[in-house]
Amino acid sequence: MKLIIDIGNTASKFFLFEGDQLRGHVIEQGHTLECIPLLLQGRASGFPQPVNPEAVIISSVVDLTAEAEANIQLFHCSVVRFSSLTPVPLRIGYRTPATLGTDRLAAAVGAWAAHPGRPLLVIDAGSCITFDFVDASGVYVGGNIAPGLHARLRAIDDYFPRLPRVEAEGDTPELGYDTETAIRAGVIEGMRHEIEGYIYHFKAKYPQLLVFLTGGDEFNFVDTIKSGIFADDFLVPRGLNYILGYIRASK
Predict the structure, then answer these.
(1) Is 245 part of any domain?
(2) At residue 197, what are phi and psi to the nearest 5 degrees?
(3) Per-residue model confidence as pLDDT tens digits over 211-250
(4) Angstrom distance (rounded) from CA 72 to CA 198
(5) Residues marked as catalytic
(6) Is 105 among the domain residues?
(7) Segment holding 59, helix H or strand E
């Protein structure tokens, strides 16, 4: 069994893999990694048996606290800290690989592991929405970063005092019939057209393109994009699991 730990901006996610099969996962709010001793003792939600991983990989977009580091020391196996120096099955064309988000690279690897030899566009919508491209020869070429759904809604509230704070959940007509629905529809429809635009642009350049969609924001518009999307909420942990196997196989 391999344990994948993906530490994001607001939450830490734990995934247990047996080979390529995801056997379970749990989410912890924050970055203290208090879930580690619970997993080892079989007291974590969804894991009634103690987890005794043979290897662990950790990807983090934040600096880890002393408490988190102490919990990591509880493992009795090899622990890989995923970084720009970690070997991956892609060649990196990014000019500043040290600044490339590990979650972005892991998602790209996850897509490549599923369909090697094809041009890939990976769209990850979380706190930010990212667009990353891998060419057919296995080069991670680069990508773009834009504000995510909730950041866009907050920005309207922050910059325009006369406009109300609007939540993502609620009626989303094609055209708003009041200020609340106008803001929500403007943001969500804008994101949909943004995603469609990237897909159509890259498909025109690369007819064999495959598109992978992942991330935390709810894509209630996915079904309206008729472009052969592979939607996978677990693309990042699948990529991290593949990288961990790649590292172990190369030793």
Answers:
(1) no
(2) -60, -45
(3) 999 986 645 545 555 556 888 999 999 999 999 999 988 8
(4) 39
(5) 103
(6) yes
(7) strand 55-60
Between CA 113 and CA 100 the distance in angstroms is 19
Shared domain for 137 and 118, answered yes or no, is yes
For 55-109, the pLDDT digits (tens) are 999 999 889 999 999 999 999 999 999 999 999 999 999 999 999 999 999 999 9
Both tokens of residue 237?
Answer: 């942990």
Domain limits for position 19? 2-81
For tokens 């025109």, what's the residue? Answer: 204
pLDDT surpassing 90 at residue 8: no
Question: Which of 82, 28, 62 is closest to 37 using CA atoms?
Answer: 28
Alpha helices, DSSP H, located in 10-101: 35-41, 66-72
Tokens of 117: 């030899």
Q: How far is the first Cα of the chain from the last one, in angstroms, to the nearest whole number?
A: 18
Which amino acid is residue 206, in one-letter code? Y
Strand partners, 86: none
Instruction: State the chain's mean pLDDT as an integer.
Output: 92
pLDDT in tens, 185-200: 999 999 989 998 999 9
Q: Give the end of a domain, one of 81, 100, 132.
A: 81
Report whether 138 contacts 112 (CB < 8 A).
Answer: yes
| Cα separation, 64 vs 57, whole angstroms | 14
Structural domains counted in the chain: 2
Q: What is the pTM of this model?
A: 0.90
* CATH code (residue 53): 3.30.420.40
